[in-house]
Amino acid sequence: MSENGVKINLVSKSMLDEMSLQEKIQFILTEVKQDVILVLEEGLEPDEEAKLIESTMFEIDPESFVGIEMESQREMEADSIIGKLFQRTPYGSRASMTVVGPADKLRTVYKDGNSIEAMVLEKQTAEANGAAA
Questions:
Q1: Is the pLDDT of residue 36 over 50?
Q2: Which residue among 17, 25, 33, 76 has the highest number of C-beta atoms inside a 10 angstrom radius?
Q3: pTM to 2 decimals?
Q4: In a domain, 95, yes or no
């Protein structure tokens, strides 16, 4: 990654579809450890997100990898009773988009039913946040 920029990798649905769950997790962790922010065209299912979080916990090293920041936007589903009442089900459906990045460089600022707003922290800000923790 360049000292002056942030690398963002937009990952297609077709690329993810070709991977097993373990391959997806390894791909995501490898990219994030290299300070890459990933935007997954078709997000992860809740069980895939849980497995990614679990795998991340084993990889954390305060000196080199502080973890991930992840936010998903769920598809609108009105097939269930809850979905019909609220016009969406927040859990149990595949995310239509997932953003994943290094926890010390990516912050979710705002999320609603239509968008995710994230902030990429500058190197100095990220280091200050790490020192403050």
A1: yes
A2: 25
A3: 0.74
A4: yes
